[in-house]
Give the backbone structure.
Amino acid sequence: MIRLLAFVFCLLCFTTASAQQEVMYHVFVRSFFDSNGDGHGDLKGIQQKLDYLQEMGVTTISLSPVYQSDFYHNLYASDIQKTDSKYGAFKEYRDLIQNIHLRKMKLYQEIDLQYVSTKHLWYTDSFKNTKSAYKSYIYYTDANNQKPFALPEIVTYNGAKETLVAVNLKNAGVAAYYTKALQYWADPDKNGNFNDGVDGFRLVDVQDKIDSSGKTGNLLKGFYAPLFENLKKVNPKIMLLTEAADTKNFGTAFYTKANTDRVMSYKLRESILSFDKKKIVAAADSIFVKNPADKYPVVFIENENTPRVASLEGMNVGKLRAAAGLNFLLGGVPSVYYGQELGMKGQPLQTGKDGDKIPLREAYDWFAGAQGKGLAAWYKDSGAWWDKTELKPNDGISAEEEEKDANSLLKYYRQLGKIKRMQPALALGNYREITNTNDNIVSFMRTYINKETAMYEQALVVINLSGANQVVSFNDSQLDTTRARLILGTPNVAFKIESRDITMTPYAVQVWRFTP
């Protein structure tokens, strides 16, 4: 009885702690849900699907850029302070945020500060014009403003040609402008009430330098750290996420130099999807054990720039579940890319156009027949990406079909979202590897301790990385399996009496909660 009362008390105490935990859902806005019938996903469409997202345990919605841009993905701004009219006016943006906040959820906004299109005022006014008020806002490599640092010319999905130029982030005017612009998104009314402001930013193309000239170095400390500090002055709770696209490191410099709150690491993603125990354990040890204190990575296996996991070679439903288990349970903040929970497919094309990544950003498949009111197939009949679309009727990959299947991937993601939300150890616990005897089995303990509330909880996660039955024995002599209760996984699997041995079915994901 005492143990039971202690457990109930712990759950009550966790109500406050759980507010710190997040399950992120990254939405590619143009492809999610179309509320007005123009074929483009929009802000009101996201608002209409908040029930669906909340049912999956989502606490934070991360939007692809919604500011004005000449690109379908809106990544490179032509005006960073205005919303794309296809998505809706600022009123729709504010309505979405306020509805999200009413549900005790959060909204993050993706943003790129490093590059703008050649249609941006800073470029159009300063090109070949050294008397322009914006003469130093673009990074020119010559004294006459004729040679901007530019990326290779881009052919857009609809055939237009665009060029991206680098912003001079070392310019004080640029820093002041970006600070003011992001502070506006954080608190539009400037009244200290953040009900109508974003809760965080996901910054991409963040680099310490963009070339080897020596003129663009030290951007993490010189530009991003002060920017983040100024945003925190407006809202101390605002979260700053940066993306470490380099697969050779985990982005530790973003923490130490820019003081970012969270990092999205491609190297961690690569390790998870290798299904190689040694790589996963090494990555987890580096990112969960050796990270600076109170810095939490964002764990993802898909985003708008990666192949859909379901399209990777050798992938099957079992592996999709195992990957999802690692995505949610390793630690940090799990992030789900829209449609990932359905097993949507997509591989980039090689046509040389900006539309080559549209297969990674296809319309969310709401309907069994691959058509219906709200389907955001804005790219229909526009090129090779439509000719090779994965949006197919009655293929088992749609929200409508998976809602009816108790064993669907969608239902499994909901299980993971629920268990992540309800179990303190899985939500906030520290990571520690539990060594075992099998090279195909990843096992780790998540432990949560709250001294103020006398709360202590542990959860053991065991994942079979192979497509065969595996027998595993755990080496930890302090692992008292008599206290273990299965809370996720095959119901008829159990530890042998007074032993640390267990048999795992192919690609099984099991979570054992240890009673107080």
Summary: The radius of gyration is 24 Å. The CA atoms of residues 261 and 295 lie 6 Å apart.
